[in-house]
Every structure is written in structure tokens, then in C-alpha cells.
Amino acid sequence: MDGVTHAEVLSDELAVPLRRALEADYEHAIAMPGAFYLSEDLLAIERAQLFGREWICVGRADEIPEPGDFMTYDILGEPVVAIRGEDGAIRALSNVCRHRAMPILEGKGRARRMVCPYHAWTYDAQGQLIGAPHLQHRTDFDKRACRLPEFRCEVWQGFVFVTLDPDTPPLAPRLAPLDAIIRNYHFEAMKTLYVTWETWSTNWKSLIENFMEGYHLSPLHKETLHPVNPTRLCRHFPEGDAHFGYFVGFSPEMERVRRGHPDLSEDELDTCVMFSVPPNLVVGGASDYSSFLCIEPVTTNSCRVRLGLFFHGDDWPEDAVEKATRLFHDTMDEDKLVLDQLARGLGSAHYTPGPLAPAAYEGCVHDLHRYVARRLLGVLEGLREDA
């Protein structure tokens, strides 16, 4: 190691396998080394280059249906509030008061006026300051010139995306190939009936890999998902620059009520479409109801996760929603147990990455590696050049 810099070691550990992933087809894809998940330096790069520049999903538009409805989300520690205005548009605003930096709103709710809880500075739903108590005498302060910074926001298929980077290309055009696949499900018309927050003891990429591969559905989820969506019914579909995914059919042995949008074909009614819009959104889509996770990295081995379920139609009885929620959490709990232990293995000096299963089963794992490679390989290779 004499004469070798830390930057060169990081580049060698990660740039080489990422270059291999970018060049390998699915038949020759290989898992990533432990450093891909456990490197603090890589996480810092990911936070800056991915979560700081890409489109981040903060929730669903139907969660804030009326003027004044809002939901909050932190992106890289930056407090953001998505709020629907009187004009019906959803805006993403800084959730930090321009007075002394107090976060203004928490969680979800309705506020036709955004009132800072510290000193009652008040903003409208467009972020304009409309009230600053006891500052009328300050001739050097014009509240009409004071407003909350606004971030770019897009609503796609009912999901609300925000980016902190003013120069990031628009999202919707990049997802046109995925639109063609999921169009008939009409996810934008579904109703979100369950949302919660959790903290998972795993790397954010490990969680995406787990959600987006069908290889483990039958062996790990013997009593939960195998009877519903067994591994044998998985089919991979081509990745895009900003998405990847796979299909998994419903077991023909399972009794179910086939319901969904009238545009759906018979095959689509019997098929789930699993997709990711990296770096933070994964969706398990189906005709009747669907699940989503919004993932926020905290450390190399922990992330905050916003989990939700959204349903087709308005006639879902409470017990049916509870049954769906129970299956969702039973499945997620099984995944948690595995992912909680995964970091121990990834940190082993004796771990050697193995071959990935065929594309139908682990193709999306390879897709995630390729996505990271496309975004970060230049940065990692540049570390060696700059050393």
C-alpha cells in the first residue's frame, strides 16, 4: 500500500467492478463487492451526485388533494414541503423560515397559510411572506421581497418528484418507455390509503436490490409472497436511463378478485409490474392495489423509508385494506430480517461476489449497478487521475 493514496484505493475497489457491470450482459453479471455498500466515501459521492441532483420521490399527489394540503420530506437534510396551491398546482418549497431557520411544517396536514411555530412568520401556499409580526418599523426590510425558495417539482403517474438541482433534465420524457409499459394501470388515478415511516438497518442500494428482484420471492417468502407471486412467474423488461423493472404473474392457484382499470388487458390484470425510478423510488404495481417505498439514505447501513399502499377504486372496505396492509408488513418484516444481517456478510474479508441469476430473476440488480455506474463511474475513475 506504500505510495498508494486513499482515493486510488477507493477507485480500484469500486470503479473496476462498476466498469465490469457497465460492460457485462445479463448472462455474465456479477454481484458487487462489500465496498459498494459499506464505503463511507462512496455514500458521500452518492449523496452529492445522486440524491443531490436526481429527481427524488416525496410521496403521491393524491395525499394532498385540496388547496393547502401539504406533506414534508427531507432530501439530504434539506427540509422540503410539497403543498397544493389555490390554483391546484403542487409546489415544492423550502420548509425553512427566512427569519431564523425554523422548520415551518411537520408531517402531513392542511394549512392555507404556512405559519412558523417559532415567531409566527406567515407564508402563503406559493411561499410568499405575508406576515412578520412587529417588524413594521424596519424600513430596510420589505416582506413583499421575501419568499421561500422553490424547488423544481414534477408529478408523474401520481407520484410527486422534487429535485434540488436546477439543471437536472426533466423527468417525464426520460420515463416515456416506462409509461408505455404501465399506462393501462392508471396509477395516477389510484387512491393512497396507507402510509408510514420506518428506519431500516440496511444500505439503500441493498433495499432497492431486494425489492426489485424476484429470485428470493419463493425461498424467503414461502408463506407470504410465494403463494401470490412465485419466482417462476418473473420476467425482466428492458432498462431505461432512469428506470428498470420486471413483471411477476399471480399464481393461477391463488383465489383473487380480478379488479382494475377497464383499459387493462387480461394479461395485465394477472400481472404485477415491479419498477424503480432510482435513486429512491420502488413500486410494486398491480391492477387492484400497489405498494411504494421512498428511500432516504442515512448511513452506509441505515435508511429512512416512506412506505405506502394505493388502491384502484373507491369501494375498498376497511377489512380489505387491513388485509393488504398486513400482507405488506409481513413481507417487509421478512425482508428486514435478511437485510439486517446482510451488512455482516458484506463486511467479511472472505466474501467474494458471485454470479447473478438469469435476468428474469436478478436482472434488476444488474440494472441498478449499471445505473450507478452510468452516474458515478466518471467520478470514481477521476479520483485516480487526481491522486
TrEMBL record:
Keywords: 2Fe-2S, Dioxygenase, Iron, Iron-sulfur, Metal-binding, NAD, Oxidoreductase. One of its GO terms (molecular function) is iron ion binding. The keyword Magnesium does not apply. This is Aromatic ring-hydroxylating dioxygenase subunit alpha. Its cofactor is Fe cation. It holds the Pfam family Rieske. Signal peptide: none annotated. Residues 55-162 form the Rieske domain.
